[in-house]
Specification:
It contains 14 helices and nine strands. By secondary structure, it is an alpha/beta fold. It starts with a helix and ends with a helix. The protein folds into two domains: 138 residues, Rossmann fold; 122 residues, Nitrogenase molybdenum iron protein domain (Rossmann fold, 3-Layer(aba) Sandwich). It has a five-stranded parallel sheet, sandwiched between helices. It has a four-stranded parallel sheet with strand order 7-6-8-9. The radius of gyration is 20 Å and the shape is globular. The chain is 42% helix and 10% strand.
Length: 288
C-alpha cells in the first residue's frame, strides 16, 4: 500500500510554495541566454520527459525511483523523503520535483538552489503542456514539440485501430490487490476516455480523489470487459491470480482473456511511454 499511498498523495497536491513549471517556463522564455547544466529530477515522469526531449546531458542526478531510461544517472536520492544536504552535494542549478514533503523545496531555496514543481498531470493535455514547458525551461523547445506531436499522432492512430463496436467496453484498472482503482477523472482514466471506455470505478462514489477502493463483489457485479493490472511488478498479479479469485471466473474480461498485465511504472506515469500502454490496451480491446 505504500506505493499507492504516495501516488495518491502526490496526485492530490493542489498548491505548493514553490515555483510552478508553467511560471518557470514563462520566465525562462525571457532569459534566452541562460541554460541549466546541472539538473536534478526527483520525479520518474519528469526524468523520462527530460531524456525524451533531449535534455538528458544536462541531468546530473535522478531519484531512486527513476528507472527509465537506463542511462539516467540514478542515485539513492529520494523524492518521497528528500534530504537537502544530499541533494546540495550534487551542486544543482535546478531541481525538479512533483512532491514537496515538509516543504523541503523552501529549504533548498534557502541554499540558493532553484526548485520547480511539476504537478502530476490530470489528463493528456496537461501532460503535453508539461512536456512543452520542460522544453522551454531546458532550452529544448524543438525536442519537446517533436515528442508531443509524436504522442498525439500515435495515440490517434491507436484509437482509430479499435473498431467502434469496441469503443464502449467496461474497464477496471487495478492499482493493488486490495482493489484500489482509478476513475476517469485521473490521468490514466483520461487514456481510457480516448477509447470511449466506461470506467467501473466512476460509479463507486465515496472519496479518494479519483482513487477509490472497490470490493471484489462490486467488481464482479459490474462485470468489466477489460481488466488492466497495474500491480504486476509490485504485487505479482496475473491473469491466473485474477481468474482464481472467488467469483471472478464469471467476469467477461476473464472469460474472454481480456486481462492485461501492465508495467506498473508505465501505467503510473504521465510521460511519453503512455503510448506503449495505450497500444497494449487497444490490442486487448480488439481481442475476441
Amino acid at each position: 500500500m505504500h506505493r499507492l499511498t504516495i501516488a495518491v498523495v502526490a496526485a492530490l497536491v493542489a498548491a505548493l510554495a514553490v515555483v510552478s513549471l508553467s511560471a518557470a517556463a514563462a520566465q525562462q522564455a525571457h532569459a534566452k541566454h541562460h541554460r541549466y547544466h546541472r539538473i536534478i529530477s526527483l520525479s520518474p515522469t519528469v526524468t523520462e520527459d527530460l531524456f525524451a526531449i533531449g535534455a538528458g546531458k544536462q541531468v546530473v542526478a535522478v531519484d531512486n525511483q527513476s528507472n527509465y531510461p537506463k542511462r539516467a544517472p540514478r542515485t539513492n536520492l529520494s523524492g518521497y523523503t528528500p534530504n537537502k544536504e544530499a541533494i546540495a552535494n550534487y551542486h544543482p542549478d535546478l531541481v525538479l520535483i512533483s512532491y514537496d514533503p515538509g516543504n523541503f523545496a523552501s529549504q533548498l531555496r534557502e541554499l540558493g538552489i532553484k526548485v520547480v514543481f511539476v504537478k502530476a498531470a490530470d489528463n493528456l493535455e496537461q501532460a503535453y503542456g508539461e512536456i512543452l514547458a520542460l522544453g522551454r525551461l531546458t532550452a529544448h523547445r524543438h525536442g519537446a514539440k517533436a515528442v508531443v506531436r509524436s504522442m498525439r499522432r500515435h495515440l490517434a492512430a491507436i484509437v482509430r485501430s479499435v473498431p467502434k463496436t469496441r469503443r464502449h467496453l467496461r474497464v477496471y484498472h487495478e492499482l493493488d490487490p486490495t482493489y484500489y482503482s482509478a476513475t476517469s477523472s485521473t490521468f490514466i482514466g483520461s487514456v481510457y476516455r480516448l477509447f470511449g471506455f466506461r470506467d467501473i470505478a466512476d460509479l463507486a462514489g465515496g472519496t479518494g480523489g479519483g482513487y477509490p477502493q472497490l470490493s471484489g463483489e462490486y467488481i464482479v457485479a459490474k462485470n468489466p470487459q477489460i481488466i488492466v493490472l497495474a500491480d504486476t511488478r509490485c504485487c505479482g498479479q496475473t491473469y491466473g491470480s485474477v481468474s482464481s479469485r472467488p467469483g471472478w471466473g464469471t467476469v467477461s474480461a476473464v472469460q474472454h482473456h481480456r486481462v492485461f498485465g501492465a508495467n506498473d511504472d508505465v501505467a503510473s506515469r504521465w510521460g511519453p511511454r503512455i503510448v506503449q500502454f495505450a497500444r497494449s490496451v487497444a490490442r486487448i480491446a480488439k481481442q475476441d
